[in-house]
Amino acid sequence: MNNTQATTSGAGLRDVEKQAYREAFKLAWPTMPGVAAWGMVTGMAMVKSGMTIWQALGMTFTVFAGSAQLASIPLIAANVPIWVVFVTAMVVNLRFVIFSAALAPHFAHLPWYRRVWYGYFNADIMMGLFPRRFPASTIHQTEGKIGFFGGIGYSNWIAWQIGAVAGILLASQIPQSWGIGFAGTLALLGVMIPLIINSAALVGVVVASIVAIAAIGLPYRLGLLLAVILGMAAAMMVETAMEKKKDKT
Amino acid sequence: MNAVDTWITIGWLTVATFLTRSSFFLLGNAAKLPPRIQHALRYAPAAAMAAIVVPDLLMNGEVLDLTWANPKLLAAIGATVFFLTTRRLLETIVVGMALFTAIRLML
């Protein structure tokens, strides 16, 4: 795109970021209903577990982590020690550590407080969209990244919170049988399909799916993390095998 | 839990969010991963999404449900076909939810 043009003036740079922000927002907004639906399910789960409306609002605005919240809500209701809830949330969130390892090098030039700020918006949709626009090969270029990251991160946060607040307030009105959370799954499905860029990625997806199903009984949703790691490893093995084959011919 | 404990728990969960989401962001240049690992991370997002999406489609609790009576599976197949032909994400979510609801009500 227009990353090749050298923009040295402050005003020019700001324009690049603004443009990247708009580009990212356009990419992210079709996921917003799915993200909101997912937030809604989480909001409903909090209230239905016996949390007050204020506790649920406080939790959604700060914790901002669907699967970790869904995992910790029944633990809070069951009066489990606080450290157990904390460890559970850490483990459920471990995939974000992998995401941040992939995304953080793009922001290494920023001061630490801005890195922490952007890190907070690192999410599934972000990981689905950011590397498609800025692959690892662009790590040393800085233009457009803050704008692009913000365009996805802020709209994702807002969509999530709109859904969560609606879920908290409407908890008693919406029947479980409607399966609203399925919209979130569909949104992730639509973000995932374009990520299957080659046969190595396809193998990674198949292996991750099988491992996730086989390991569903593991505590702390460790199966999810195991699936990501083995899926990645499988994809790399296929890629290496393909390259070797190419070298021979 | 009493109210105070619940708020303390919410505080710790916020810490968990920052520690995981911001982990490598906070480390900055202090943690440079080897190129091979960085390369492998390209495949992480698709694998992570598959690990979230596929069990939701195929599992009913802890039991595998690969039958025609699984509305999520059928709706997801329809949504995938729709997405592959149109590449329109928002419409895919709408079509998938409509299929899911229709199949659920028919069964």
From TrEMBL, chain A:
Lineage, top-rank taxon, reads: Bacteria
Which key words are in the record? Answer: Cell membrane, Membrane, Transmembrane, Transmembrane helix, Transport
Localization, UniProt: Cell membrane
Q: Tell me, which GO biological process terms does this entry list? A: L-valine transmembrane transport
- Where's it mainly located? membrane
What is its membrane topology? Multi-pass membrane protein
Which cellular component, as a GO term, is one annotated location?
A: plasma membrane
The name on file for this protein is Branched-chain amino acid ABC transporter permease
Automatic annotation (TrEMBL), chain B:
The source's domain of life comes to: Bacteria
What is the name attached to this protein's record?
Answer: AzlD domain-containing protein
> Keyword Transmembrane helix, does the record have it?
yes
InterPro entries in UniProt: Brnchd-chn_aa_trnsp_AzlD
Q: Which controlled-vocabulary keywords does the entry list?
A: Membrane, Transmembrane, Transmembrane helix
| UniProt cross-references to Pfam families, sorted A to Z | AzlD
Residues annotated as transmembrane = 6-28, 40-61, 73-103
Presence of the UniProt keyword Transmembrane helix in the record: yes
